[in-house]
Amino acid sequence: MANANKATIDPREAEHFGRLAADWWNPKGSSAMLHRLNPARLGYIRRAVDAHWGDDGTAFAPLAGRTALDVGCGAGLLAEPLARLGARVTGVDAAPENIGAARAHAAASGLAVEYVAGGIEDLAGRRFDLVTSMEVIEHVAEPAAFVGGLADALAPGGLLILSTPNRTPLSRLAMITIGEGLGVIPRGTHDWDQFLRPEELEALLAHAGLTVVNRTGLGFSPARGFVTGTGEALNYLLTAVRG
User: Would the pLDDT of 117 be above 70?
Assistant: First the structure.
């Protein structure tokens, strides 16, 4: 892709998330919201993986023999479960502090995960069966170049899975006014103007040669916490393939 080698890292964003590195694995700390999001995201990923590669949903390690890349991996909150699902996982993150925390946690957990400090452009030439990037594209400097890099990292027959907040009045109220205002989410985490509407993200994916095959909302239920299959006004997930 023409844009794929452009720098996608926003240094201010990397610095912000780097300051949170030491607390990343604390389920009651500054990343508590990510811990609460993770089960719903993992459930969606598992269903997408099973549908794409034809598994019946009963395999203990449905990603065995496959490679996976988590872009914007933080301290490994998603990379580690992907490794437990059998994948050979690489995680890349713009904040070196996050990579340090990720490596230490994986070692303590007995998991072999490769972690790289940098952006998607630092993995140029490498291909992965599964590429994930959760709540990341709203933080990058060049969304089109970022999507181009994700597309370039996708192996033939591979699967791309993204999630991101929608740019709606509800997301501004819930994530910034309330979430950051009350300290549930660290202040300064989000810039609402950087959120992408689904049709905007799908246009970027199409330009990169990818086709969206599934999209669903991610919302909050007082009874069940974060769940998929809701409206898309707060957040959404999608899967895409080449062509």
Answer: yes
Could you tell me which residues come within 8 angstroms of residue 42 by beta carbon, excluding any fewer than 6 positions away?
78, 81
pLDDT at 4: 44
82's enclosing H/E stretch is helix 79-84
Q: Is the pTM of this model over 0.90?
A: no
Q: Is 23 helix (H, G, I), strand (E, B) or coil?
A: helix
Residue 154 to residue 158: CA distance in whole angstroms: 6
Q: Report the CATH number that the domain containing residue 169 is assigned in CATH.
A: 3.40.50.150
- Output the CA torsion 205→209→212→217 (10° steps): -10
What torsion do the CA atoms of 49, 87, 73, 240 make, to the nearest 10 degrees? -30
Nearest residue to 34 (alpha-carbon basis) of 200, 175, 207: 175
Longest dimension (CA), the chain: 46
Token code pair at residue 28 = 């009651």
120 located within any domain? yes
Q: Give the model's pLDDT for residue 85.
A: 96
**Which two tokens mark 173?**
């109220």
Going edge to edge, which strands form the sheet with 128-134?
A: 114-117, 88-93, 67-71, 128-134, 154-165, 235-242, 210-221, 225-230
- Other CB atoms closer than 10 Å to residue 230's CB: what's the count? 17
Could you count the other beta carbons within 10 Å of the beta carbon of residue 112?
9
Structural domain that includes position 218: 11-242
